[in-house]
Amino acid sequence: xxxxxxxxxxxxxxxxxxxxxxxxxxxxxxxxxxxxxxxxxxxxxxxxxxxxxxxxxxxxxxxxxxxxxxxxxxxxxxxxxxxxxxxxxxxxxxxxxxxxxx
Length: 102
Known about the structure:
The chain is α+β, with helices and mostly antiparallel strands. The chain has one domain: Alpha-Beta Plaits (2-Layer Sandwich), CATH 3.30.70. It contains four helices and five strands. The protein has helices at residues 14-18, 22-34, 59-67, 70-74; strands at residues 2-10, 38-43, 49-55, 77-82, 86-87. Strands 1, 2, 3, 4 and 5 form a five-stranded antiparallel β-sheet that branches. The radius of gyration is 13 Å and the shape is globular. Residues 88-102 have low confidence and may be disordered.
């Protein structure tokens, strides 16, 4: 199944806006990770963006997950880039994925 890399750019007032949505966001990512649909993710060091790697069947499934992303729905971030997918069998197995939300 393909893995898609999505970069979300955070709003200028992201830190203030995210707080009410953060528990639901982390619970959502945990559920997606447990289902195998999120394989890695996290914020950039400066907090200006975040990355999530989704494992889904196709772009339609990816678009549904992005539309349902808690921070995306709250308007505290917006998708700015969706990289090409890679087959999960072609991913490097040298490093384990970093759990999302940590």
